[in-house]
Amino acid sequence: MSRYRDHKDACQVFEKIENNPEKYFLIHYSCESFRNIPDGRTPRITSIAIKSIATGQVESFSLHKTAEQKGIPFHEIAGKYDEIEKDMLREYFSFLKENKNMFYLHINMRDINYGFKAIEHRGKVLKVTIYVLPDSQKIDLADLLKRRFGDNYTGHP
Fold it and tell me: What does the alpha-carbon distance between residue 49 and residue 5 come to, in Å, rounded to a whole number?
């Protein structure tokens, strides 16, 4: 695409978000370190936050929140990580399914290493019924900003 076309298309997406903020969420998640997993499994998802663009309200899914809701004492959490992560991901996928008509703004959550596919994979590993959000409802904010302002809009990282 031409630089002009990229800019114009990105501006149109920002305009849609501005005109219909109730249809958009921001999503971010954290996981274990990619380097410090001795048994070779994929990194455990530790938390997911989803913020409404319209209201600013945040829905939070985290291992420690889930453990607390289940009444698991802090000192027992490490021994029950799979069980806790499974329940946390059930809640997350349920949220996605309940909000299946929304659009999700994210930053570089594009692949199996870090992204929606990584979260889905952890759900499959833990035998959770997953909800796959269509790619058409995922908007990479980093890519959108690059298209809007050009390749050099900011330094990396």
Answer: 32
